[in-house]
Amino acid sequence: MIYDNSLVQLMSSLDSGVYFVDPKRRITFWNRAAELLTGYSSERVTGACCSENLLRHISADGVELCLHGCPLAGTIADGKVRQTQVYMHHRDGHRLPITVWAAPLTDESGRTIGAIEMFSDQGDRSVLLQELEKLRHEVLTDSLTGLGNRRFLQVIAETRMEAVEKGSDGFGLFMADIDHFKKVNDVHGHNVGDRVLKMVATTLGSAVRPLDAAARWGGEEFILICPGAAPGSLAEIAERLRMMVEHSWVELDDKDILSVTISVGATRARRGDSLESIVARADACLYEAKNGGRNRCVLDEGSD
Prior knowledge:
This protein is an alpha+beta fold. It is built from nine helices and twelve strands. The relative contact order is 0.12.
């Protein structure tokens, strides 16, 4: 498909990701920003059909939009402009929150000849380090995943628990553990295991708000602290974390993909809690989730 050179030059200069598709949703143009945002080169995607689910956009509810409710398919069908927020699959395996804008491409007669999609990163929301610059020191960061480390989590938890004692709304604490992670290392090696850890860490961090804190607690365990999480929202947050990881994966050298799941235990902070006591409750819930078959969430009974 031939496009006006001025249009291509303009789209190539944008900081937002841009790609064109023909009426069958085959990708015909992929700009440099799209390469940077997704990790996929133009050579890799040009000619591929977006219905093959390359980027695997999913909604906050876990619906794979490339298969059900693709904005581009709707725009090609009715010529209407669409805008939505989705979670995109990056080539490295993690999920990224992006804003998607789709519009029809037409010829001189007004006939739809394809569609254009523009997308931009909603912002790296992986850790509280971005909001609290004073805590960006190396000692508070896990070198492998880029999340906060155990010390970082301790600092955040102490601050939040002091607020609870003064009557704040409290916070939710979520402990997540990668299921069968030892098998990943045994079968695929530690390099792949490290990639899985990075993918899960980035996915978890992207699934929460900027004011929330995500940390690697140790090994394949992660803890997230969500201030103001109401009792009734624990299940929703925990399920979102579980679902986002379930829908993510890493690519292996042979082009196969490796996906993993997590189990999640969740509780809410209470007056009189210490970090040890609240983590112990979440850990007990996590243990129950593991024993219950894995890839599931268990909430502390006293949190609802």
